[in-house]
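Table 4 source record.
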Amino acid sequence: MQHLYDIDVRVPMRDGVALAANVWHPAEGKAPTLLVRLPYSKDSALLGHGSLPNVLALLEAGYALVVQDCRGTYRSEGEFVPHMADRHDGADTVAWITQQPWSDGTVGMYGPSYLGMVQWETAVTGAPGLKAIAPTFTSIDNYEAPWYGPGGALSLSLVTLWNVMMYAADARRSLAAGEDTASHLRELGQAALSLEALNEMLPTAEVPVLAAYGKWWDDWMAHPSHDEYWDAMELTPELKNVTVPALNIGGWYDLYIGQTLRTYTAARQKAGTAQAREGQRLIVGPWDHGSTVGVFADRSFGPLADAQMMGLADLHVKFFDRWLRGDTTALDGVAPVKIFVMGIDQWRDEQDWPLPDTRWTDFHLTSTGRANTADGEGVLTAEAPADAGHETYLYDPRRPVPSAGGASMPTTPGFCGPVDQRTVAAREDVLCFATPVLEEAVEVTGPVGLTLYVSSSAVDTDFTAKLVDVFPDGRAINLCDGILRARYRNGLATEELMEPGTVYEITVDMTGTSNVFLPGHRIRVDISSSNFPRYDRNTNTGGVIAHESEEQMIPAINHIHHGPDHPSRLILPIIDRKDPS
């Protein structure tokens, strides 16, 4: 099929604003259309991201393609405010596509990160021409991911990086329009080269290069709780309006992994039609937000981990063939859930998530002495301990535990993905609880959580947790993690400070993973009170953290209680199969 390529096509919105799009469409006849909407420039190289199908492959498969700049970005008119206009703009663009002479009336959407958010924002409008979406590394709750987190802490390193990038793009746009933004553009450029220093600045809400620009930064800082501001953006209550199947794609080390898993589960239950509910699919690989190769400095998952090797692009085409072309055989033989099982480093087909044969198992925290550091005496045991005890450490926000890997934005080497935890776990403010050396393989696949009984000298503090695979050679590779700001222990919408010295039961959401702990390995959980700069530091005062200075910070003496009356425990989804592959 021969295609024509039109640049900067003006697509009118309901309020008269025109959005710019590049359009590939058939020279003759009609075709189903795939739509990509992004705030990072339709002319950028982003379409070459490893999670995306090749543009030429889509055209050769007989699809038209529309790539559009979001409102107020690059070549599009209007003002950009994250998420505020994307529902109507997405629906209006779908309607415009269906009216074009080259369109057969069917539209699909695909893309990662913000490009995935706009897909769900369009889908909840019930746009008639939209038939399927393929959101990758994305969220339907913008508070829980990416801007804050499911435990109420600010995703500091992400929001500083992303806002510097978006404000710089806006400043360049204003400069091109004749406005005097050159000095601010230089400041933003310097900030982008000094992200570590930017994350250290306090108060966070008053970081000069960001606060001076204002706009949505001020709003995000003014709403640290999941209040009505974030409720207006959350799409979970609106899943009842979704009538399209979705190919949900995630990475075990992607910053959206918790939302990817929860969105699949929620849409399976709450989407508006049986076709949408039953048409949900899930793929999760050993990937981070920037790479789908599966190769990291401290851990390589083998050649099969690569998205290209496992055929992710081809799965996109099959998915769209099924729902845009009506090819009922396109997905024959393709399981609804496909996950990469780390440890054995293999892809495996499943029928649902969480896996139906999951055995939720408590691993209790105890110790024979002090659990501080990986060389301490913290123990994970399937047997409930008979003796009571507690572990103590000092959390000083002026000396936070540095981020080491995890599901975060890959800003610098070692900041994201699987990273050896030995350096971090040597700190006195890190508690480590580990099983004995395993004699048999143990598979952990599913959501992971940690229930703790805690007390503190402070009225508010944070508790962090990492699930770690300890190798026979001593390497300690992180699998998944979480953080809870204690003031949000009973919900993200309301703050409840602690009474110093009082014991509270809390739960840390550690998202999820799939890993086989091989014989000779150990299962370990690491607990502390900071993960900086991935998350902002809790000042421990109970005040508005974003507006507090370093001088206002106070240390906190934190306790983890365990034993019969305080059954602190790691809750793991155990899969018992003779052959885990």
